[in-house]
Amino acid sequence: MKFFNTKILGTGSYLPDKILTNNDIAKRVDTNHQWIVERTGIHERRIADPSKDETPSGMAAQATLKALEAANLTPNDIDLILFSATIPDMFFPNSGCMLQHKLGITNQCPALDINAACTGWVYALPMADAMIKTGLYKHILVVGSEMTSSFNNWDDRNTCILFGDGCGVAILGRASENEDSQFYSSVLAADASKKDHLILEAGGACKRITHDVLEKNEQWVRMTGQEVFKSAVKTMASLSEKVIKDAGKTMADVDWFIPHQANLRIIEAVGQRFNFPPNKVVVNVDRYANTSSATVPIALDEFVREGKIKRGDNVLFAAFGAGLTAGAVFFKY
Ligand code: UT7
């Protein structure tokens, strides 16, 4: 059987225009800009406007058009859509199908949603890589698109300061024989013993939205911040170490580290553990906050478009999220 090396053919991202600053949030809850910056590194975040189709699938359509242009492909070249959304457009049809429609794809490519919360996009990558490697699909669109403002409780200062909306995508395909782009290694994990630390219970099959649920404000995200923080540092560090070792490389071989953008202190703690110089660690949490599973592909797209990440660079992704899920992927861009 012939195997192919996987290459990121093109990336794209979309951020809504509307900016919500820390001072804007401080008008509603008891917080302030200095506290938020010191504890999280976040200065501002973007907020989607569904009336402008800034929905998970709508933002993904905009980001995908940019990725298609970068990859020199057309919508009908996509033969599989893997769509990570913590809160999808709607329960069904899935957001992947909504995106297929918005892109005008007529080739009937399969389209499905993946929910691993903030780790969703990183979860989708090894799946896409395996299907490219074996030749099952040629051009897989991997989307992380999130409207966190739809689950954010704007009256809860413990969580509402953290999240923002946005989308990042990558198109994965085959590297040609004279190219050395490849996915070296990946590891995915979940520890459901910590499932209650980051949770949105209501709205699914177990707890429908009722007047009682709304009165108790159970339709919003709840989080035990410090537990998530500790677990994030530990798992992102250990999974990163594992993928580097599995690839037969060392931390010195990493050109760029793109961690999930949830909190600057988490990012710095992991980066320092590996002695990464700060200029190797990609950060944009200050501008966009935590866009859930979109943080890593947005950061990737920004750094590729700014010419910082170049072909041949070794890139390490690491993410964590509700579940608690976690994952790391190491590849040559
Ligand atoms: O994708 C995964 C998403 N989740 C995460 O990554 C969350 C990880 N956790 C965190 O980022 C941090 O735990 C937080 C930023 C959420 C909180 O920071 P912290 O340093 O862990 O603060 P804390 O929860 O220990 O709270 C310290 C104090 C408390 O007051 P007291 O009890 O010491 O009087 C809080 O009530 O800060 C208070 N506090 C705030 N004060 C001003 C909590 N939130 C705020 C706020 N503004 N927004």
Q: Descriptors for this entry?
A:
31% helix; five-stranded mixed beta sheet; 333 residues; Peroxisomal Thiolase, Chain A, domain 1; binds oxa(dethia)-CoA; alpha/beta; four-stranded mixed beta sheet
Estimated radius of gyration: 19 Å
- Named at the architecture level, the CATH assignment of the largest domain is 3-Layer(aba) Sandwich
Low-confidence blocks of residues: none
CATH C-level class of the largest domain: Alpha Beta
Bound molecules: oxa(dethia)-CoA
Distance between the termini: 25 Å
Q: Report the strand count.
A: 13
Mean pLDDT: 97
Strand content: 15-25%
CATH superfamily of the largest domain: Thiolase/Chalcone synthase
**What sequence of helices (H) and strands (E) makes up the elements?**
EEHHEHEHEHEEEEHEHEHHHEE
The helical percent reads: 25-40%
Total of helices: 10
CATH topology of the largest domain, anyone? Peroxisomal Thiolase, Chain A, domain 1
In spatial order, strands of the major sheet run: 1-7-6-4-5
Quickly give the structural class.
alpha/beta
Short description:
The protein is an alpha/beta fold and 333 residues long. It contains 10 helices and 13 strands. The chain folds into 2 domains: 6-174, Thiolase/Chalcone synthase (Peroxisomal Thiolase, Chain A, domain 1, 3-Layer(aba) Sandwich); 182-332, Peroxisomal Thiolase, Chain A, domain 1, CATH 3.40.47.10.
